Amino acid sequence: MSAATNFRLDLTRRPRRMRRTASLRALAQETDLHPHNLIQPVFVIDGDGAPEPIESMPGISRMTIPQLIEEARALLGLGIPAIALFPKLDASLKSDDGREALNPDTLVLRAIRALKAELPEMAVITDLALDPYTTHGHDGLYDVSCGDLANDATVEVLAEMAVLAAEAGVDLVAPSDMMDGRVGAIREALDGNGFDKTGIMAYSAKFASAFYGPFRDAVGSAGSAGTHHLDKRTYQLNPGNRREALMEAALDEAEGADILMVKPAGPYLDIIREVREETELPLAAYQVSGEYAQIMAAAERGWLDLERCRDESLLAIRRAGADMILTYFAKDFALGSR
After folding, report:
1. pLDDT digit string (tens) for 219-249?
2. pTM of the model
3. CB 234 within 8 A of CB 148
4. 116 catalytic residue (yes or no)
């Protein structure tokens, strides 16, 4: 049948009019994505060797501090304003109580000092959690007597870590542990030590997700624990709980968080949208290692168009309401958008 017929629908509104050309589509686009919306997570190691590729995260490597500085310089040049630091420590530095986290000269603090000395305009974010430092791979102090994390004792350590990071010059501390009350305790510790300008990016709705496996490879917490499948359900959120996520976000805001975060991002777009509607604070979302890895793996097999799926996944997170996205695609997206 020919497309040219005399039949015409009696329509006043034809939405396709605004999709007819690239220029019209650009005028009507509701959500934009730019490099300045993105934060690049980076993994730092000690030594002076070559970067260490992370097998489960193609294209991502652990870097020494000098390599990290050059990477940060390149990211700034691409318009990416911030990096999130994650250390991978030698196994000899790990312990049941994660005491290396309170070493004033520990790897991540040296990295912060070096970055701020060379690139003061780069915003540096560092996690507050004990999983890179513990032999058991959990995010806090493990109480063997009850088989769970000790909430208040962990918070005390996190507050000390926050002060050390602030002394090193970090812009934002990011408690990712999901202990009760940690944002308020960290804010009090920072303010009490004269670091009222240091911000808190709170992992407010961090779910007990199956998408974290490659990250645990990257920081070595999986190797410490002997498994990718650490059970963190006593402190991370139940993936089935929406109202609990909103409660956690409200608590973090009340305790003094400067930025709220939802993690993971893609499987929790509904939570991003609901948190966005409940707060006026800036909202971050973390497109986690498993989200990155599944897109990369499918693209390597020719099943997906890498660039289009990458950009669509990030745009969806922005559309849901995230002001900023932590993503391993940040640099590649910025290169592709030039």
Report:
1. 988 654 455 567 899 999 999 999 999 999 9
2. 0.95
3. yes
4. no
